[in-house]
Amino acid sequence: MVELWSTSMVKKIKENDNDLMDKIVSLCKRRGFIFPGSEIYGGMAGIYDYGPVGAELKRNIKEAWRWEMFRRHEHIYEVDSSILMQRKVWEASGHTSAGFTDPLQECKLCHHRFRADHLAEAGVKQCPDCGGPLTEAKKFNLLVETHLGPVQDESSLTYLRGETTQGIYVNYANVKTATRASLPFGIGQVGKAFRNEITPGHFTYRLREFEQMEQQYFVHPDDAPKYFPYWKKERMRWYLELGINKANLRFRPHEKGELAHYAKAAEDIEYKFPFGWHEIEGIHNRGDWDLSRHSQFSGQDLSETDPKTGKKFYPYVIETSAGADRLALAFLIDAYTEIAGGRTTTTKSIKETEVVLKFDKRIAPFKIAVLPLSKKEQLTTIGQEIAANLRAQWMTDYDETQSIGKRYRRQDEIGTPYCVTVDFESLEDKAVTVRERDTMEQERIKIGELGGYFKEKLNRIK
Ligand code: ATP
Predict the structure, then answer these.
(1) Burial letters for 111-146: b for 16+ Cβ neighbours within 10 Å, e otherwise?
(2) Which residues contact 178 (CB under 8 A, 6 or more apart)?
(3) What are the distances in angstroms from CA 39 to CA 44, 45, 118?
(4) What is the pLDDT of residue 141?
(5) How far is ligand 1, taken at its centre, from the CA of residue 386, in Å?
(6) Which pLDDT value is given to residue 350?
(7) Where are the beta strands (DSSP E) in 38-184?
(8) Nearest-atom index, ligand 1, CA of 117
(9) Alpha carbon of 255 to those of 89, 104, 193, 264: distances in Å?
(10) Distance between CA atoms of residues 163 and 101, nearest Å
(11) What are the structural domain ranges in the chain?
């Protein structure tokens, strides 16, 4: 059987990464952001697991997206559709018909296959594995197959969804009826998607199992030219508000040959990864392709009637399609800051480079860490009580091991915005020191006032 991806290709891409990627990968493993999937069995290409702080980071990104879509915008409705759908859905979407999916090139000698766009991007004209000649680009299906039911035959074949979008189209009529929505309105969802990617790689950039955050905005065709730039602007604002450096973001319009045959317009939001500018989100005007195809394949009429002309039409879809894993990687890279010579210790001999993850407060895994200055019971009892109170409202870490300098550093490395230190003076003045991550400014706050203090600092909505 022909191999659908190649380790040497992944290795080659990896060798082009600079030091920063290695540092990020190592930090992710060491501090519990991201681990290789099934690592004790040797790992799996394109599969990663999130550890204690990584799970929180990714959840915060998804929550920030949900907040933006379903609370900040009106008339966008959430669904949580199934990963498994009728096989016909993927026929309607075009995913299983020939000539639709990503073009691959095959080596005529070793028969390894590679994504044609990746080869072109890397300027590679011969097989990266053996140097053999490559075929013309051909299209292959990237959907992950599975079987449902006790008998594994053609009739039980189905797919793990390759994108969350299709779960939105199949629920279009249900959502519209249940919410009594009328155009324009949106449907969005966060969920897993699976693709048999030919060249997974760049850590969690290209995965075979990943999460998407997609929103389909249904509009009258005449309104599409208005809503495409509107959503471009809205999505870029979201990234900037969450603290991504403006210089690391850009729009890239799709070139002619790249545009899906049904698409009217498409632009990617790209992030400047250490391995180059790459897509983190796609904004597409998909025309009436989706609802017209699903009407045709399902037999259910998903068209609308124009109130002015009385004519039938299929709504156009302006889609915003982002990936939670790619965003988590972009947020990690963007937040990563090295401070040469250190900043938390004044002892010259132990001054070394320190790492601070300058996450926006909404994205940071822990919001607060409570650190008693000593392990003495008088202090740990107060510390634990403060932590328990704060934990009721915010993700709060508690750490009483090692020196206070080392503990500050550990919190900086996972991006905790505030550290609360309990010291011997606290026994007298019933106050603690709150240290801010980026400025290292310290404030003395009464223990009884901590709740109000953090409410002001952490819950304020920009
Ligand atoms: P690419 O060209 O990188 O394969 P795409 O254009 O196929 O991406 P879309 O189908 O538009 O991607 O998916 C929307 C978003 O889903 C992407 O912007 C990305 O954030 C995320 N995504 C897609 N494929 C993957 C993957 N294999 N691993 C991680 N995230 C992905």
Answers:
(1) ebbbbbebbeeeeeeebbbeeeebeebeebbbbbee
(2) none
(3) 8, 11, 27
(4) 78
(5) 43
(6) 66
(7) 48-50, 76-78, 103-106, 113-115, 138-139, 144-147, 157-160
(8) 2
(9) 28, 19, 26, 12
(10) 13
(11) 52-86+154-332, 359-458
278: tokens are: 């790459």
Give the ligand 1 atom nearest the CA of 324.
Answer: 20
- The tokens describing 217, both together, are 């905005």
CA-proximal residue: ligand 1, atom 11 (nearest)? 282
Amino acid letter, residue 46: G
Confidence of residue 439 (pLDDT cuts 50, 70, 90): very high
- The residue whose CA has the least distance to atom 4 of ligand 1 is 206
What's the token pair of residue 244?
Answer: 């991504």
In sequence order, what are the beta bridge partners of 434? 420, 443
Higher-pLDDT residue of 105 and 369 is: 369
Tens digits of residue pLDDT in 54-102: 999 999 999 999 999 999 999 999 999 999 999 999 999 988 875 456 7
List b or e across 247-261, with b for residues whose CB sees 16 or more CB atoms inside 10 angstroms: eebeeeeeeeeeeee
Which residues, in sequence order, are CB contacts of 420 under 8 Å at separation 6+? 368, 369, 370, 371, 386, 390, 432, 433, 434, 435, 450
Topology of domain 359-458, per CATH? Answer: Rossmann fold (3.40.50)
Class of the CATH domain delimited by 52-86+154-332: alpha beta
Q: Which atom of ligand 1 is nearest to the CA of 268?
A: 18
Which atom in ligand 1 lies closest to the alpha carbon of residue 278? 3
pLDDT tens-place string over residues 230-246: 999 999 999 999 999 99
CA of 205 to the centre of ligand 1 (A): 9
Distance from Cα 79 to the centre of ligand 1, integer Å: 20
Which ligand 1 atom lies nearest to the CA of residue 208? Answer: 27
Residues within a 6 A CB radius of ligand 1? 163, 195, 197, 206-207, 210, 212, 279-282, 321-323, 325-326
| pTM for the predicted model, two decimal places | 0.90
Distance (Å) from CA 43 to ligand 1 centroid? 22
